[in-house]
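Case 252 in the screening queue. Each case pairs one protein sequence with one candidate compound; here the compound is 2-phosphoglycolic acid. For every case the pipeline is the same: read the inputs, emit a complex structure as tokens, and attach any notable structural observations.

Predict complex for case 252.
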Amino acid sequence: MREKIVAGNWKMNKTFTEAEELMHQIADGLEQMEEDKVGVILCPPAIYLEMAIDISEESSFFVGAQNISEHESGAYTGEISAPMLASLNIDYCIIGHSERRKYFEENDELIGRKVAVAIHNNITPIYCCGEVLPERQAGNHLEVVKMQLEKAVFILPPSEFSNLIIAYEPVWAIGTGVNATPEQAQEMHAYIRRLIGAKYGQDIAHQMTILYGGSCNASNAGALFSQPDVDGGLIGGASLKAEEFLKIIQSV
Ligand code: PGA
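Case 252 output:
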């Protein structure tokens, strides 16, 4: 059985006290739920990662970063390296998010290097891919995602690739309130799994967790997660309210 996961991408939100409160609310909710069939990952801003690790020690959630440097150390002012994250016991890192691609001009080659450096430091990348609206409208969405996978992660040897989590996040659905339909998500997830099967074999394809992200909330999560190839979600806006995020977790 492949792992079901719900990850919360807090993006650049919450002050220290707000972040602390939200983490405790989620921890309390998880304790009451005794949920063990789904892995929960919180990805707060980097400045709160240490606090998240402390709180996670009393809870069942895991902690992920939102970004990572492609370099392991050195004169890169403002950056945070994989060994630094590993030294805090951070298990996951979102890599290749569309906001990093758009606002920070990250391309597939750079993203590929970030994925590799994360894996080499025992941090599981949550690799994001997805098409923009004109690409979907032109019917190119499958091809676009295939290219993103080929350039950034299909370059990995099987032993490394099998450590990945993939998140399909259609860019037109992120933060817009317009989620992909369950059928659209299933089509892409099944396609990604077929590509993985062709490249790495059926065993790896079958055990790979593929998350859906983009305006996923407590109302639509159940329908999205009930699709056979949707193994959970990467949640942005709806992960910022404990009650809603906990409901999403219960929808898996
Ligand atoms: P959203 O963001 O849930 O707010 O659409 C998802 C994401 O960017 O990971």
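Case 252 observations:
- Residues 9, 169, 174-175, 213-216, 234-238 surround 2-phosphoglycolic acid (CB under 6 Å).
- The longest strand covers residues 4-9.
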